[in-house]
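Figure 2 data, in text form.
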Amino acid sequence: MELIVAGLDVRLGGRTVLRGIDAMFRPGRITAILGPNGAGKSSLVKTMAALITPVSGGVQLGGRDVATLAPRERARSIGYLPQDGRAYWDVPVRDVVALGRLPYRSPFAAEAAADRAAIAEAMRATGTTALAERGIATLSGGERARVLLARTLAGTPDWLLADEPLAALDPSHQFDMLDRLRAVATAGRGVVIVLHDLLHAGRVADDVLLLRDGRVVAHGPVLETMTAARLSAVFDIAVSVALDAHGRPVCIATGRG
């Protein structure tokens, strides 16, 4: 099912942060949301996850407003990976990942075989199986980021919305994270990620949505959207764009615009 944003206006703290956003996100693809600081990227994905209430417009999944879905149904449909994944209690990693299965279980019910299988697969996919008995507070920022991705994947949502999922990762684990998000999309689910790194966006995105000052500047396939002219206009920098051996855009900032 497509995730559709229509006529979206959002105000936070008395300021309009999103204006007239229209966009359609398709399953089986990775969409990268790019834009300078303050463009409204995080506000957009939070609104898509029904964590922010818009002043007008809305977000639909399969023709239904996500804000009106029952919490359990919404959690099964949309998984949200926040930018700042904090650990408030030092619980074992496996218990953290198991939280992703709560939308499928009755209160106080024991884990079913399907729950255990989903947890094990999410941990395998994120390389966190060996961390299962560790307390989450003992982990590095990168390890914690992978555990929180595992928690989201354990819920097997139709859509995964990730806000700057590479922020706490070293270069090697950044590539691992992008590969895992690609696997989610290849399995037929939709992925929307907020990114700052133009090189990573060019490498992983099927589609790109460019934001500036709360408005959509461009939205479409990566090669059509990540052009030197558009990126320069959005970020106020000079950008060089070439194609790699796989036909993917390599976007490098070369100076001030």
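Caption note: The CA atoms of residues 2 and 26 lie 5 Å apart.
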